[in-house]
Amino acid sequence: MSLKPRVVDFDATWRDIQGTIRGVITLDNIPRKIWNDRFSDIYSLCVAHPESLADRLYAETKQFLIDHVARLLNKVQDDGDVHLIRNYYFYWSQYSKGAGFLHSLYLYPNQQHIKVQKMSDAEMIYGSSDSNGGMWLLGEQMEIGELALEVWRAGMIAPLGSRLVKLLLEAIDQDRAQHTTNAPIAAVKGTILSFVDVQGYKKKGQLQLYQELFEQPFLNASGEHYKRDAARLLEERNVSLYMEKVIAKIDEELQRARKFLHQSSLQKVTQRCEAHMVAEHLSFLYSECMNMVQGERKKDLSNMYNLLKSVPNALSVLVDTVLDHIKTQGLTAIGNLQGENIHISFVENLLTVYKKYRQQIQEVFNGDQNFMGALDKACSSVINHRPNMGKSLCRSPELLAKYCDTLLKKSSKGISETEVEEKLSQSITIFKYIDDKDVFQKFYSRMLAKRLIHQLTQSMDAEEAMINR
């Protein structure tokens, strides 16, 4: 290939180029020699003497693409709506791949002569006028691959968009109903993703066409579907069953979104489903909340948690109900203790309640900090409870100190040092909830002094370890 500028017969050269790019855009087999010759011809036009013919080449190429897409538009519509999606996807797959090859063939003018719209740094960050084909509308030159995609958007998607979207929504509804879709799944998904890919060259707003043309109508139509589904399920008046079916529905819709949509839509689909099937029916879900908590129905509570956690502020009722239940169970556990070993029953009953609900929160609510906070509040309320409507003193500091004293005395028979160590360690759980820690310290110090004076302590190491805690 000669790099020296020379006089070129544009019409003759363009006829050769046109024949080749027709084969390129339709994915015909182009021999390597023909490809190299056309690459040289395009270069020769761009550096032609006495003046470059690059602008004329661009104009002819643009018109060729416009005419080609116009012919494809007729072919796509040949079979009416019955095969519109199938035909569209077939020609889009061919055209989009061919456009990539065409872009490579025009490498030299793309890099050296195409007047790409210059963007300031501010436009790069905050947006530019090229959304919705601004460069196309302004007559600015685009790189050939980008031009081909823009021609498709303007010549194919613009006239067919509303019909395609209607048929796409119908196909997705057929899938929901477990019916065979009129168009192959690959064609449905490929058509939807073409609304993204056709603007994939943009630095900003690549999803704008997809969102405005397809995603928003899809979400609106899906929202109406979710409302109808919720109304049908509510007729059964069974909260447990409703929750199970809604969870299954959300998962089903997410899987469907993965099958058909762009990944940016997945979270939006889930949020729309939750809005219409959960957030709009909170009073119905709450109506069974207390019974579930009091009956400690773990599966139901887990389902309720999983549904409510994504809805703003929806967990508060469940959290408060759990808090009240733990508080009630705690007060019941220490309510009517009698005998000489009240202090032992007091501490160990409270630890049993604490361990039980801490484990339940881990299992049922995935250790959610809202419920861990409820456990803390419930334990604090129970441990600092003052009987007789608040008229009596809280006995927790004294009973805990006595419990520790019993473990640390030599008289604690039948308990190994390891068990003593473990029980003392667990008693710290009760200590951390006591408000009057000074009162506990007073009782503990007094009992410690007696143990030391009367040489009743079981182990100085254990005494030291307890103080260090």
TrEMBL record:
PANTHER family: CULLIN. It comes from Oryctes borbonicus. Belongs to the cullin family. The lineage of its organism: Eukaryota, Metazoa, Ecdysozoa, Arthropoda, Hexapoda. GO terms for molecular function: ubiquitin protein ligase binding. PROSITE patterns: CULLIN_2 (PS50069). InterPro entries: Cullin (IPR045093), Cullin_homology (IPR016158), Cullin_homology_sf (IPR036317), Cullin_N (IPR001373), Cullin_repeat-like_dom_sf (IPR016159). GO terms for biological process: ubiquitin-dependent protein catabolic process. This is Cullin family profile domain-containing protein. Residues 395-469 form the Cullin family profile domain. It holds the Pfam family Cullin. Gene3D superfamilies: Cullin Repeats (1.20.1310.10).
